[in-house]
UniProtKB/TrEMBL annotation:
Coiled-coil parts of chain: 155-209
Catalytic activities: NAD(+) + (deoxyribonucleotide)n-3'-hydroxyl + 5'-phospho-(deoxyribonucleotide)m = (deoxyribonucleotide)n+m + AMP + beta-nicotinamide D-nucleotide
One Gene Ontology molecular-function label: metal ion binding
Residue span, BRCT domain: 803-871
Gene that this sequence comes from: ligA
The protein's name in its UniProt record: DNA ligase
Enzyme Commission code(s) on record: 6.5.1.2
Pfam families: BRCT (PF00533), DNA_ligase_aden (PF01653), DNA_ligase_ZBD (PF03119), HHH_2 (PF12826), OB_DNA_ligase (PF03120)
Family: Belongs to the NAD-dependent DNA ligase family. LigA subfamily.
Active site feature: K268 (n6-amp-lysine intermediate)
Keyword DNA damage: yes
Cofactor: Mg(2+); Mn(2+)
Organism per entry: Agromyces tardus
GO biological process: DNA repair; DNA replication
Positions annotated to bind Zn(2+): C569, C572, C588, C594
Amino acid sequence: MRPRRTPLRRPLRPPRTRRFTCVLALAPSPWPASSASRPASPWPVPLSRPKPTAATAGASSRPRRPAPTAGSAPTRARSTSRASESATSHGSSASTAPADWAPCWPRSTATTRPTADATPEPTGQAAAVACPVRASAVLPRLGRVDADIDTALSLTDAADEVEQLTIRINEARDAYYERDTVIISDAEYDGLMHRLEELERTYPQLQSQDSPTLTVGGRGETTLFAPVEHAERMLSLDNVFSADELAEWAARAEASAGRAVHWLCELKIDGLAINLRYERGRLVSAATRGDGRVGEDVTENVRFIPGIPARLAGEGHPALVEVRGEVFFPTAAFDDLNAHQAEAGEREFANPRNAASGSLRQKAEGKNAAQLELMHARLGRLQMLVHGIGAWPNPPVSAQSEVYELLRGWGLPTSTRYRVVDGIAGVQEFVAYYGEHRHSVEHEIDGVVVKVDELALHDELGATSRAPRWAIAYKYPPEQVNTKLLDIVVSVGRTGRATPFAVMEPVRVAGSVVRQATLHNQDVVKAKGVLIGDTIVLRKAGDVIPEVLGPVVELRDGSERPFVMPAECPECGTPLRAMKEGDIDLRCPNARACPAQVRGRVEHIGSRGALDIEALGEVSAAALTQPRVPAEPPLPTEAGLFDLTVDDLTPIEVVVRDAETGLEKLEEDGTARVRAPFRRNPSAAEKKQGVVGPQPSASGLKLIDEIRKAKTKPLWRILVSLNIRHVGPVAARALADHFGSLDAIRAASREELAEVEGVGPIIADAVLDWFEVDWHRDIVERWAAAGVQFATPGHPGPGAAAASGGVLAGLTVVATGSLEGFTREGAQEAIIAAGGKAASSVSKNTDFVAAGPGAGSKLAKAEALGIRVLDAAQFAVLVTKGPAALDE
């Protein structure tokens, strides 16, 4: 192990007056402002603060446009954290602070500071009053993986490591942004990103344009909803983990500004960043962050969230303004949601952020009336707090804290608590206080964001490709609790790895009730020293993944027993073994027929990042591969997926199991919970017509219909659904775009595969190895026989589009309506494969519009602008032969 390098620290500047503003993004208080019974708050009322004078805001009085707002984005699966939540004046009255609380005085026009026990006398629009926190509070520190670069590392070895790091980071991003799942903790992800950043600094020639260190969030290309391009980019934030790092960052920012600055602090909400676009006061779109430039259009779903106005209050609104904020589940609503998930036998959400994302990104398409009602009810439990603006060249405000007052005046939901504090010590006290009192907040938080308050300095300090230099996120260490270790069970996943899981007495930690946690492998169990029956210490790594830290040895009573790793697969009885020399993990080698592995692969096929078959979730995958009835599963392997019929589904009964541990879920009487997900009893009307016996349920009919439609999904989705190691959406898109067909991919050499940007030798080897397995080839053959489309229509061949620019090079095409022979995504893929730009809206820069039935307003706009409109047959000619062939 290489010695840990002590990070260099910049010397601090001489002490001088520095002021900071702190904003708490809390849910609106349930206590009315005038209520006599309202509980006393340790934080007094914030009042409006004065606009900066020339002395405080710098020499320039020219109005400054705010830099791109760093919205509250999730921090899982990337090294940047989201920006803060919004804030407005809090309606509570000031309370008396204890003697050991230090007041944090705001910007003020007064020339003499009040003493700690003095009562300020704000005049008119005075700044926020004292912010008491315990002066003795110690700011918690969260350890972080620091990677050091071996200067003797060769360029070849460094390139190999960069490639492996990029693959692991992209896999984590794909899981987080495309499937709303978390596969590694924040600390692990930050360690990977830190190592990659160090390698790229040492070997700059290894940094590609699409490196994770240069990109924000998920992919810009959207698949669930139509893409929306943000008028102004949505950035993320960099992280700090200790008081020292926070102070160093503040000193650097102040040094760059060349003068004293004012700061704004706010709590980080565990939710989903959303961009609201208002035109002359009317809401026209709502979009997710995406990659910071392009997000998903979730406008229709956002309209169901209470508190988001369709029209802004007041008058004189700008022609265009973007309002950034965070959508989240309050703690109580999140608990109710997970209770409902458990009752229905569905997977519970790991945290409120995943729940908010999964709820907001639901599709209404294909849902019946009852399902739509349930979907809208869940959306109605969401809340939103807004925290910033974008795409407004000259807003009538000069400070971030004034933005909150403006947003509140427009009737937008804003945070209710924020403070102005004096100096970095005040910020650290603020952070420490809410680290100790985070459960007093009505939603989950995982840190505090500190921003430069003056908007003029946002432009001066600028931003990197991912994050502004005028803001930072301090992350709290994970919360720890004690609970009882009831058992350790072994579960087998879709890759065959046998993973021990700790089964515990339910305990609440970091926002959700935890019942089990992975122990990774038998060596980890031994290293942690836990025995079955121990009282153990539990935390959520990064406030997401439950992690067992170790036992409380003092509480042992002699009844505890050690864990013994089974020698055989608990699902199929095949002897477990290490797949190669030196492997710690044991795996089940029966990849083809092990029921747990087949179930995992089938569930992956239906996931959002693969074929996106909504009806093929956890319960459906288990029913198809591990039913109680019939004795022989409809899907011994995934090869028969596209051959399924309604008759195959109707008889199925399945025992509901926990998704991670595989343990049976029980009814209140202790019997196994059994479901028949694909059948129903005849209705009264059907019985009158003589219908008898079980009938196909709506979910069964929907599953068959969605499987049928999936046959023509884009090639990259088919590639992901094949479960090839390392081939996620990013690599699959690269392969599909370059080769255009599965036959071309299979015929390519290792060198030809590795040369594709975004692939490389590791993924190339994985692809070639996959096709060497006979039952893998059987999957492809059976899917092809069932009608699965393994080629992109109109693709000119391997590398042809990239080499020639494609027949649509330089052209912008909009596909709208139902085009015969193409799905919506397929039409977009065909345009891209031919070298064109697949736009989502019609403008004067559009060259062609392909329109089918249901084209609607896009067709009308194209006709009004005089843009050539094509039918499906002409569109096929366009993407195959180019525009010249249209007139032949």
